[in-house]
Backbone:
């Protein structure tokens, strides 16, 4: 996208913050009109800040919005959780706009109050929008009551009720977001959509596949390490990954009877990686146990946290 002289251009960073499972990554993917962030029904799917870059023309204004998809704010039980909350908090110091995202089908939770307090304590003044998702999951009276309660948490933010699943009110959200962005040239090339490399995205896709297929007690203890990522020209790419769990019993569940579960995880992940990259992929996954890795700072650093 070429920019003509004297063209108005708005550009800036928009942090999407909220408790786990309010739809932050889903919002990012739908606004970018392509998948760059892992999405599962499991809380705490997002573990690191990730950029999603939207370069477009919105109502005759050239715009580049750099969304910061953040981990869900929660009360951490492990050092990994502490890192995740720090990542979300850090985004508030780096952004031009805050999107405080909540679940409009429910009243504010302790985690919503926790995040509202973090936003209030931020040293810098940043404009924000109270994004009230899941408006389709309750009736109008319930929604109005919940909006009133959330507005009391963030009185300086304009509330906008949306439904990601039904794609309702997303244009209104975009209008407000563009209005709040500073006048500035773009930070990234127009064709760049994320700050992650294909290697990183592949690790996220493998973990997403595991989260979608495994039972509740395992997912938070899973981490993926990409051991090899080799381009094979016309033959596509060869990816070798290790899936770590915290217990031997979890390893048996991940592998499944005669390797059936691991094959399902690999097949699902391979198809997603091929769809993302547009080429054939050979994917090999092995499973190892690394006990208590979520509470081991040395191991967390090795895994990039």
Residues:
């Amino acid at each position: 996208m070429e920019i003509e002289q004297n063209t108005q251009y708005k550009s800036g960073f928009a942090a999407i913050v909220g408790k786990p499972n309010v739809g932050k990554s889903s919002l990012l993917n739908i606004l970018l009109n392509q998948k760059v962030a892992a999405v599962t029904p499991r809380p705490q799917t997002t573990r690191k800040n990730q950029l999603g870059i939207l370069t477009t023309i919105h109502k005759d204004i050239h715009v580049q919005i750099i969304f910061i998809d953040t981990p869900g704010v929660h009360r951490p039980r492990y050092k990994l959780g502490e890192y995740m909350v720090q990542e979300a908090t850090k985004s508030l110091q780096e952004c031009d706009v805050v999107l405080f995202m909540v679940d409009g089908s429910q009243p504010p939770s302790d985690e919503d109050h926790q995040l509202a307090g973090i936003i209030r304590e931020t040293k810098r003044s940043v404009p924000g929008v109270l994004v009230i998702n899941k408006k389709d999951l309750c009736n109008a009276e319930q929604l109005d009551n919940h909006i009133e309660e959330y507005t009391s948490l963030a009185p300086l933010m304009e509330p906008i009720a949306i439904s990601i699943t039904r794609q309702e009110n997303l244009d209104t959200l975009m209008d407000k977001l563009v209005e709040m962005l500073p006048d500035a040239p773009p930070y990234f090339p127009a064709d760049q959509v994320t700050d992650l490399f294909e290697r990183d995205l592949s690790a996220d896709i493998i973990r997403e596949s595991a989260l979608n297929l495994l039972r509740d007690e395992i997912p938070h203890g899973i981490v993926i390490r990409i051991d090899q990522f080799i381009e094979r020209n016309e033959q596509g790419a060869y990816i070798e990954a290790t899936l770590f769990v915290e217990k031997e019993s979890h390893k048996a569940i991940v592998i499944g009877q005669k390797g059936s579960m691991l094959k399902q995880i690999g097949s699902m992940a391979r198809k997603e990686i091929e769809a993302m990259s547009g080429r054939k992929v050979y994917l090999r996954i092995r499973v190892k146990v690394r006990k208590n890795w979520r509470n081991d700072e040395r191991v967390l650093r090795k895994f990039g946290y």
The mean pLDDT is 89. The longest strand covers residues 9-18. The chain is about 35% helix and 25% strand.
